[in-house]
Amino acid sequence: GxxxxxxxxxxxxxxxxxxxxDGDEEMDTDEEIRRIEGKDAEDPYDCSTDEAEFDEPxxxxxxxxxxxxxxxxxxxxxxKCHFFLYGSFLPPDRRxxxxxxxxxxxxxEDYMGDKVSHVVTTNTWDNSFDEALSExxxxxxxxxxxxxxxxxxxxxxxxxxxxxxxxx
Length: 168
Prior knowledge:
By secondary structure, this protein is α/β, with parallel strands linked by helices. The chain is 32% helix and 8% strand. Helix 5 (127-135) links the parallel strand 3 (118-121) and strand 4.
């Protein structure tokens, strides 16, 4: 090599490493510098994402502790109910319906079948409801407000005020 920089070996010159092409002496990244210095590069992403170790313990009242303790159980008044959510719901309403039904041990069916006892819908009566009733005469069509009312009372409330009936 003709114009070898001070301290550069022939191999480095041939590979083109170690040259300060644009005159900027800070051309190496931190990782390259650590590698050259023989240190292991630290992975900035190799850290705990568990925030609990940084948070202060949360203080709560005795009532809150009782509600969240493992011994506390929710009422299971929906345990014999199988729900089918029919039609469209606002996403937050749908989330709450699913949450309340599950919390009170109800079952959500993915499709209309023999197991379904309650159809929850925001729709008005339509022909498919007549068809479903002919196959299962004990089927009840209710508005989402019935689920919310049951949640508020922590018990099943009469569904008649929340029922959807044919408009005959």
